Amino acid sequence: MSTARRRALLLGCVVAAVAVVAALLASGLRHDPSDTASPLVGRPAPQFRLDGLDGPPVALSDLRGKVAVINFWASWCAECHTEQPALNATWDRFRGSGVVVLGIDFEDNEADARHYVAGEGSDYPVVVDPQSRTALAFGVRGVPETFVVDQQGRIVERVIGAVDEDRLTATISRLLREDTR
Amino acid sequence: MSAVRRPPVRPSLGLLTLGLVGCGLVALLVVAVRGEPRPQSRSAQVHQIAAQLRCPVCDDLSVADSPAPLAAQMRQQIADDLAAGRTPDQIRQRFVAAYGDSVLLTPPHHGVGQVAYLLPALVLGVGVVCAVLLLRGWLRAAGPGGRGAEADGRRGEPGEPGGHGAQEGEGGQGDDGGEPARGAAVQGSPRLSAADRRSLQRALARLREEEQ
Questions:
Q1: Residue B160 has pLDDT above 80, yes or no
Q2: Do A133 and B77 touch (CB under 8 A)?
Q3: Which listed residue, of B5, B57, B117, B200, carries a Cα 20 to 30 Å from A101's Cα?
Q4: Residue B135, burial from CB neighbour count under 10 angstroms (0-12, 13-18, 19+)
Q5: Angle A13-B180-A7 (CA atoms, 0-180°, nearest 5)?
Q6: Helix (H, G, I), strand (E, B) or coil at A79
Q7: What does the DSSP 8-state code read for residue B172?
Q8: Of A81, A164, A92, A157, the residue nearest A123 (C-alpha)
Q9: For the whole model, what pTM was predicted?
Q10: Which of B102, B114, B117 to mutate to test the interface with A (most CBs of A within 10 A)?
Q11: Whether A27 contacts chain B with CB within 8 A
Q12: Distance CA A40, CA B74 (A)
C-alpha cells in the first residue's frame, strides 16, 4: 500500500472516529435524562405500609385483587390542583368496581395536606410518606406522578404530570375487562 | 559510488510515543487493579455513593451536591442502607431499579454505556498501531537503501552516478513528501511499488554509469 493511500486510510479512520464521538455527544445533549420510561412498569409495585393522613394505615397488600391508582401529590403542587377533578371523578366512577384511588402525600406538612384535601373535596384514602421512602422506591421524580397497579400488584402505567381522565378511565376499564375473562 | 551517508535516525520520537503509550497502559492497569479508594467514615461513604447518583429532580447535579429535599432523602436512605449492612453496589442497584440507569452519573457497563468504557481502549489500540506504523516508517527510512539513503544519494557530488539530480531532479520529491523522485522510466508504471521503483532507479543509474 502506498504511503499516500495509507495516509488517506488513516485520515478516513480518524474522521470516522471523530464523527462517531460527535454523534454520540450530540444525541446525549439532546436527551433529557429525566425523560425516561420507568423501569418499574410491568414489574411488581414496591411494597409499602403508610399511615393515613386521617384514616387507617394502608399497605400495598391491602390493594391486592383491586386496580389501584396510586397518586403522589403535595399541597404546594400547582399541577396537582389541575388533576384533582380527574382523580375525584375516577374515584366516584369506579369505587364500587374493585378500584382504589390512593393519594400519597409527598414532602408536605400534614396541616397543609389536610387543608388541601378538604378544599378539593377528595374522599379517597390519603397516606403520608415520611422521608419519601415510598416515593424513592417508586422512582418518583416530582409531583404529580401516578401509577396504575393491576389486580396482581403489577405496575401497568406511569403518568408523569397531571393525569388525563379519559386515559385513566381507558386503562382501568381494560384492566377490569381483562380480570373478568 | 560515493560512501552512503546515513541520515540522522529519529528513534527518539518513536520511543517517546511508545513510552507514553506504555505509561498510559500502566496507569490504566493501576486504576483497574486498585479501583476506587474506600472512604473511612460513614459520612464519607454516603458522600461517595451519593456523588455517583444523579439527583432525579435537578438538572445535572449529583445527589451529594443537590440541596433538593428529595436528594437529602436519598442521602438519608443511603446512610440507613449502609447501617443495615448493604454494600454500595446493592444500594446503587436499588436506585437503578426504581429510576433506571439514568440515575447513575457514570455510564452503565451494558448497552450503549459500554461505549464509554470501550472507546478509550479502542483509541489506545489505534494509537499503538499508528505509533508502530510510524516507527516502522522511520526505521525503514533510516536503514540502508531506505528513503534517507536515497535522498542522501541525490545530494551526492555533481556528476556522480548516484546523484540523480541531473536526470531526475526536475520532479523533486513526491507530493507526499517522502517518495523518491519519479523519473521518466518510472512514470507510466503505476503498478510498481515504491521499493521496486527504487530498485529500478538504481539499476538504471548503474546502466548509465557503465555506458559512460
A1: no
A2: yes
A3: B57
A4: middle
A5: 5
A6: helix
A7: -
A8: A92
A9: 0.64
A10: B102
A11: no
A12: 18
Nearest one of A45, A52, A48 to A122, comparing CA atoms: A52
Tell me the C-alpha distance between B205 and B150, whole Å: 12
CA distance B180 to B184: 13
3-state class (DSSP) for residue A148: strand
- How far apart (Å, rounded) are the C-alpha atoms in residues B187 and A7? 22
Cα–Cα dist A160/A68, whole Å: 16
Judged on CB neighbours under 10 Å (0-12, 13-18, 19+), B130 is middle
Q: pLDDT by residue (tens digit) across A60-75? A: 999 999 999 999 999 9
pLDDT, tens digit, 9 for 90 and up, residues A101-112: 999 999 999 999
**At B84, phi and psi to the nearest 5?**
-80, 0
Chain A contact for B93, CB < 8 A?
A: no
Residue B21: half-sphere exposure toward Cβ, Cα within 13 Å? 18
| Predicted ipTM > 0.85 | no
Residue of B nearest to A131 (CA): B73
Q: Cβ(A115)–Cβ(A92) under 8 Å?
A: no
Contact B98 A138 (CB under 8 A): yes
Strands A99-105 and A126-128: parallel
Nearest to B57 by CA among B66, B65, B49, B48: B66
Check residues B200 and B171 and name the one with the higher pLDDT. B200
Q: Is residue A176 within 8 Å of residue A97, measured between CB atoms?
A: yes
Within 8 A by CB and 6+ apart from B167, the residues are B183, B208
Cell of A132: 419519601
Closest approach of chain A CAs to the CA of B106, in angstroms? 13
Which backbone phi and psi does A127 adopt, to 5 degrees? -120, 165
